[in-house]
Amino acid sequence: DTGVSQNPRHKITKRGQNVTFRCDPISEHNRLYWYRQTLGQGPEFLTYFQNEAQLEKSRLLSDRFSAERPKGSFSTLEIQRTEQGDSAMYLCASSFGLAGEETQYFGPGTRLLVL
Amino acid sequence: QKEVEQDPGPLSVPEGAIVSLNCTYSNSAFQYFMWYRQYSRKGPELLMYTYSSGNKEDGRFTAQVDKSSKYISLFIRDSQPSDSATYLCAMSRSGGYQKVTFGIGTKLQVIP
User: Fold this and answer.
1) Contact B11/B110 with Cβ under 8 angstroms?
2) Most B CBs within 10 Å: which of A39, A41, A92, A111, as the mutation test of the B interface?
């Protein structure tokens, strides 16, 4: 399977715990995005990487959230001191191509439940 | 007011019907318009991608963009039960990377 992969697919944690999600983009894609989707809503942009550089962060990404993309390959999204409001599907997408002409391919998502 | 408005449905149609899905938007800077299909508990899958105004057809799917009215549509001909999913409209500004803004999604059910 050469699509975007995300691990784990599901995560249940207790409030206050830290969690980390991983995204492996399509190999030749240099852009990587994280989105959050809550029940009954469309995905909301969280952050964007071009290669290893994190170029934009949404105001939705509080100080408890941190994302990295070492060496411009896979990416991790960490949530510290989780809160019940963090419960959502976390989606990763990757893309390649000229700016404005790219197509984002989404992974299956990591579903987080904070108890 | 949200930048992108989309009726959440649900929309139920009989198999074989023509389905019309729509979104309106408020930001005139949007230049790229997309439709994604999302099955339950899966990631979104890109269906259609258009730039600026006009129509684009791909098999049973037709996307229309009317920038003067800030209105986009997706038509599905000969709908099938396998088309049952949530359809998300999405759009982005011109230039630079694509920070995509999504609609809330319309849940479609095609009844055999």
Assistant:
1) no
2) A41
Hey, is B105 helix, strand or coil? coil
How far does the CA of residue B41 sit from the closest CA of chain A (Å)? 8
Structural element, H or E, at residue B66: strand B61-66
- Decide: A89 and A111 in contact? Cβ < 8 Å: yes
Chain segment A62-95, per-residue pLDDT in tens: 899 999 999 889 999 999 999 999 999 999 999 8
Nearest CB to B43 within list A40, A48, A108: A108
Contact B102 A44 (CB under 8 A): yes
**Which tops the pLDDT comparison, B99 or A16?**
A16
A99 to B96: CB separation less than 8 angstroms, yes or no: yes
A105 bridge partner residues: A94
Local structure of B42: helix, strand or coil: coil
Distance from CA of A27 to the nearest CA of B (A): 18
Beta carbons of B77 and B60 less than 8 angstroms apart: yes
User: A85 in helix, strand or coil?
Assistant: helix
Q: What is the pLDDT of residues B72-82, one digit of tens each?
A: 999 999 999 99
What angle (nearest 5°) sits at the alpha carbon of residue A21, between those of residues A62 and B43? 95
Report yes or no: A82 and A18 within 8 Å, Cβ to Cβ. yes
